[in-house]
Amino acid sequence: MTTIYEARKVVTMNPSRPLATHVAVWDGRILGAGSLDELAGWGAYNLDRTFADKVLMPGLVEGHSHVAEGVQWRFVYCGYFDRTDPDGTTWPGLRSIEEVLARLSAANAGLSDPKRPLTGWALDPIYFDNRRITREDLDRVTTTRPIGIMHASGHIMNVNTRALELAGLLRAGINHPGIPLGSDGLPTGEMKGPEAMTPLGPHVGLDRSLLASDEPGLRAFARLCVRKGVTTAADLANLLPRPAVEMMLRVCGEGNFPARIVSLRIARDISPAELIDRVVELRKSSSDRLRLGIVKVIVDGSIQGFSARLKPPGYYNGAPNGLWYVAPEQLREIFERALAAGIQVHSHTNGDQATELVLDTLELALRKSPSPDHRFTLQHCQLANAAQFRRMRSLGMCVNLFPNHHFYWGDQHYALTVGPERAERMNACATALASGVPMAIHSDAPVTPLGPLFTAWCAVNRVTASGRVLGMQERISVADALRTITLGAAYTLGLDGEVGSIECGKHADFAVLEDDPTEIGGERLKDVRIWGTVQGGRIFAAATI
Ligand SMILES: [Zn+2]
């Protein structure tokens, strides 16, 4: 039987018919958006007035997040800003290292098993005048239990002395760019980059397999999606071992699982040839709510962690250039094999030198395998300049920018990392659109909180945490921002034919809103109240999820 939903307003994002009052749904798909009279022509129907006073938008699409956020909430939240967990509890932000240590000590006191590690997440020393946390700091919490705290960027970890001991790394003579040493010649406990973090992970509860999430973590992540109006979310860096894929297929397939997850296979622990074979195989096992078959490559680190690769003149504060996470030769082989197999690759670049490497590498690979509509996407790509956006356009690339950075780290980018001029061009949304590069914007949750309407607010206003407008010229309109968090993100995932607008034939995926994002004004976009979602024609209320 057809259901026709009545709404205060339906914002369709379909350019041929942008507004409607009703939407008809049959078997999880949209029959059409229009007036009740028009939709009655589809035959017998139930009129559902649940949303009669709500605004419907296409279900929001988060183009870059990580389902591991659902797992991280089991650990101690060490972030600077208040943040809401999947169950709706808000954790106050921690404003000093002392406050971080106090929350860790409280959690430590609650652990009975002396062997169990104490794990934290979302730490960011940049808010503490970049004073780095050392193992001696963490030893004040405990010297008997290993501690590991993941930074907000996900690219750096701090550990205590016990954790270094267990990993066999409490020794002199270590020579690794990701393992800084103290004046005693021993590691300080800050581990930068995957190579340095990996040996510690198993000892501090931050094993790499976490990237694959787990059953309760996946369900928790999906609850967050409902709270934020998200019906499709990319899980951008998953190792996707077979047992995890089976689990994800099963959980996503449950009748009450409220989101579509697009999980990318990260290029790690596997040769380029094996990677592409595996991803071709994964693509075949996709289901409606678990989409597989895209590759993710990480090219450099993070700007605020000074591990991103910058072109000259480099970091504003004189910090040495960052780290390459992939060898150029390996990147070339991945691109060539992916293009030949028709597999899409998303490349994480933060610094402009990393972006340049991807552009150069793809240009050469495309000469070997010309591929119209390859949709290779630059992820973050925060520091790209105008010339690089023009090259993206010429090469047929998409970009997924990270405007949340303006709010969370804009002040630091201005004062410390890249300086005033480049801070203003960071995440240059207006230049991307003017250059004709298909664009998405994202949260990179758990790096910043999931919430496409908040991300849209960041792109529209470019306001930093201290209230500075950073890059007035790169602000975009509300209409552009709303298209970007729906059709824009869907395009980068190859899903714009299925989701991203409310129109005939697409999945019945809606964000159900109390306020009208097209009327509330750009300054208040982040305050739009979210009632919940409809996903595949199934209704999910945030209040009861
Ligand atoms: Zn990410």
Explain the overall architecture:
This protein is an alpha/beta fold and 545 residues long. The strands form 4 sheets. Strands 6, 14, 15, 16, 17, 18, 19, 20 and 21 form a 9-stranded parallel beta sheet that branches. Strands 1, 2, 3, 4, 5, 22, 23 and 24 form an 8-stranded mixed beta sheet that branches. The radius of gyration is 23 Å and the shape is globular. The mean pLDDT is 96. Zinc ion binds at residues 64, 66, 236-237, 444.
Assembly form of the protein = single chain
Low-confidence segments: none
Unique bound compounds: zinc ion
Note the overall shape.
globular
Largest sheet: 9 strands, parallel
Helix content: 25-40%
- Based on CA atoms alone, the radius of gyration comes out at 23 Å
Quick summary of this structure?
The protein is of the alpha/beta class and 545 residues long.
Task: Describe the structure using short key phrases.
binds zinc ion, nine-stranded parallel sheet, 24 strands, eight-stranded mixed sheet, 545 residues, alpha/beta
